[in-house]
Amino acid sequence: MLNVSISNDLVFVYTNYRVNAFGLLPGKEIAADAMSDLNPGLLDQHAALKWTNKYVSEFGGDPSNVSIWGQSAGAGSVVAQVIAQNGKTSPSLFSKALASSPFWPKTYKYNAPQAQALYDSLANLTGCSGPNSLQCLKTVDVQAIRNASLTISGSHTYNTSSYTWSPVIDGTFLTQPLSSATAKGQVNIDYGFGMYNLHEGENFIPPGFQHTESSGSPPFNSSVKSLTAWLKGYLPGLSDRDRSRVLSLYPAQGSAEGLPSYNTTYVRAGLIFRDTVLACPAYWMASAAHIKSYLGEYTIAPAKHASDTIYVSPKSPPLRANR
Question: How many whole angstroms from its chain centre is CA 156?
């Protein structure tokens, strides 16, 4: 569904798109089915952009001067559109992208073990396991899929880098990771703007990191052992040597830009999460723009995830076309 509004000589286009298992379900079964798509939520957004390119002039907009914006998972969607189709989307659907705290975890290939496990779990939870699992899923009640999707998400909250539902490399729309696409300059933007918040990683880490080991706050606490255990689950692809390197780069007592000093496990873990999933994607995306790049950090206390949105209209759209 699309909604269009006009304000202060600007045309705003608002769009809905599918999320969770409905919009981001991976798996080899989907790839093999001619009537199914990987990353359908991203394709919903792409369709909205194509509509905007074709029809926004009817509302006084300029299809050659379109900006897209999103925050958190919405900003992750901005990242996806920026690197879509190897940065060679034709016709060009937008020229400027603004990503506020883009949630962009590791992107697996659609049939990687980590991705396939999500499909298999959904099929099992909905009673659709077996050789005809996809056909079965297409007949299951919507609420059953929603419940299973939330169950899967809840089981991965503090033990994977993805929070479960994220875009996958599908080989067509998304062909490579963000780091590769931006290193090659294969992006769909002339101007890029990235934003992240000083303490926003703390929204996504175990709250138990704030408590001592003796306070009885399972399963996580402020000890190095607990931090290391979380890191093994959060970044499972790292070797022991890699994890030691991460902990040396984020020491028990240290500092960060906008943060003169810190000495708690909670802040330490928050910085690790922030940089790997939110700040670095903002930097990579923005810096790859063909003409001009901007990167900002929001540091006004508490500077948590979404703290900066108080300065943005609650109805700010994901797509914009200047008149």
Answer: 15
